[in-house]
Amino acid sequence: MQAVAAEARRIAPALDDGELLVTAAVLHDIGYAPTLATTMFHPLDGARFLQALGMPTRLCALVARHSCALKEAELRDCGADVAEFPDEETPVRDALWYCDMVTGPDGQRLTVDDRLAEIRNRYGPESLVGRFLDVAQPELVAAVERTIGRYTAAGIPQPKYG
Ligand SMILES: [Fe+2]
């Protein structure tokens, strides 16, 4: 989470809503907290927790939909619950997905290809998560590429990977 937030902070100046990106990056995986795990799908649990606290609608939705969560929710039969939170499909949303997709589980900086391979390896290609990635990969990679295009155009370099 700290490394996701650090990358968000680094690229935030390239976005109109950089502050929202940083907040969403800090909170995006809060649903992994055992005390919040009700559906056991962390984007949904996190978004509902933030919603119950009265947090801004956009923040809740960014958390609910982070990194193509709807596609995984559909495989877990909670697609309708996640779909209640709209995907804003903006540069901030792309940037949150990007920050998540270039950060490994120990905070290491990875290319999106290495990150996808790392996840597949950890869960197994035949697992639900592996099947989710097969469906989500094009959207995840596109969000990463759009984000790199935006911040490099604003003069922010790419991070050192690996
Ligand atoms: Fe997550």
TrEMBL record:
GO function term, MF aspect, one: hydrolase activity
Domain (HD) ranges: 3-79
Keywords noted in UniProt: Hydrolase
One Pfam family, short name: HD
Classification via SUPFAM superfamilies: HD-domain/PDEase-like
Secretion signal, residue range per the UniProt entry: none
InterPro entries membership: HD_domain
Protein name: Metal-dependent phosphohydrolase, HD subdomain protein
Classification lineage: Bacteria, Bacillati, Actinomycetota, Actinomycetes, Pseudonocardiales
